[in-house]
Amino acid sequence: MSWIILFLAGLLEIGWAIGLKYSAGFTRLWPSVWTVCALAASFLLLGLALKNLPVGTAYAIWVGIGTVGTALLGIVLFDEPTGLLKVISLLLIVAGLVGLKLTSA
């Protein structure tokens, strides 16, 4: 169950990171509210997952999910530049996350 909670925390990290862009520096009310709520929920879920998971592994996976998801959504939603090196780099992060999961109890 802790891994599911951690995964949800990572998804919420993507949500608040993207929300920062939509909030325009916290000048738009509803995107700002969503961002703060997603941030709080992400931290809450990360804290719950840390009850049963090693902190180094859980934190790395939480950040990795957020990093890969935010980078991909930046490409899709905001037409951020992409290229082969970026894709390979994101795949290496995913490979690292899988490796961390496989070496954790």
Automatic annotation (TrEMBL):
- The species this protein was found in: Vreelandella malpeensis
Query: Family, per the entry?
Result: Belongs to the drug/metabolite transporter (DMT) superfamily. Small multidrug resistance (SMR) (TC 2.A.7.1) family. Gdx/SugE subfamily.
**Keyword Ligase carried by entry:** no
Q: Which UniProt keywords apply?
A: Cell membrane, Membrane, Transmembrane, Transmembrane helix, Transport
Q: State the name under which the record lists this protein.
A: Guanidinium exporter
Q: What parts of the sequence cross the membrane?
A: 33-50, 57-78, 84-103
Query: Where in or outside the cell is it found?
Result: Cell membrane
The membrane topology of this protein is: Multi-pass membrane protein
Please give the chief subcellular localization of this protein: membrane
Task: Give the matching Pfam families.
Answer: Multi_Drug_Res
